[in-house]
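Could you help me review a protein record that somebody else here produced? This is what I was given.
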Amino acid sequence: MTIEIKAPTFPESIADGTVAAWHKQPGEHAARDEVLAEIETDKVVLEIVAPTDGTLKEVLRAEGDTVLSEEVIAIFVEGAGAASSPARGSDDAAAPAVEEQGKSGKSKTAGAGPAARKLAVEKSVDLAGVDGTGRDGRVTKADVVKASTDRPAKTAVTRTQTQVVETTGERSERRVPMTRLRASIAKRLVAAQRTAAMLTTFNEVDMSSVIALRKRYKEEFERRHNGTKLGFMSFFVRASVEALKRFPAVNASIDENDIIYHGYYDIGVAVSSERGLVVPVIRDADSLSLAQIEDHIRDYGTKARDGKLTIDEMSGGTFTISNGGVFGSLLSTPILNPPQTGILGMHKIQERPIVVDGEVVVRPMMYLALSYDHRLIDGQEAVRFLITIKELLEEPARIMLDL
């Protein structure tokens, strides 16, 4: 039975998607729920899986093509039979389109195997100039490697579906189009700086108490909560929620001439992934324990790494926390995540000398940064908000006692 493979149903906030990759080619067998293709949207990458055991017969939308919600992108045949229809998006489409005819009447491109054609694309080798040493003059991978090694230094430009490689002698440049996710990130960040009156205020926090608390209860916490580790982020999420309760403007958003004050606390946690920065949201963070917050953060980190985050998990959010400290950042200015009016930046914990009760002591210190929209939040309010977070972290018992 023939089955139409369709793009996912996109939510109203997403108009279309782009075919990011085909994991199966026409004629290849796929087991039920095996990934056939990936569709990239402005927010996430969605997987298209095989509806049943069968064979991918035909690809209708190649990698890089824009697709609409529920658009047919491929034809699938149920069962174990093979299909052999040519398709856009296969290695044949990506190979250099050289049709030099030889004595046999066949082009050299046609006389090269799929592996050799793919390698030719990667190494910018023109198959028209490669003499095949395989059976019946077939071009092999070894022939492609030899051709790429023996060719003289010259300027060449090879275009594939996804990139342009420019080579001049031993110096090269690689031009690739932005992914939809990266382009969306760029658009949102530029919009944030263009539309918001963004300012940043800084402070520093002594992390001694939190570090001591983690050290004292780390093992017991992990045993009690089925292997969940006690990290720093859960303390910052809880401290942020308490501060947001006291300064509701930082938990608000601007919609044209209206201010929307949110009566809930959905905290976005910025996570770095191979495809770019993503911000999954911890819903109703005010009702979660430290262990539940840590579980959410761990699950989101795993999903971000594997590209499994859903659109719902990345939608909304009333306030965002970004932790540049995991990469060693000592100080930075985080950019707002529209339409939110505040974002907290965490940084590297570093031992520094500070003055306590008239004496110089060494303490583990962290710089904090709060970027805020000055259209809604006044400077004194932003400063007081950040000081509140500082006080709660320096005396974490205040978080538990609601002080």
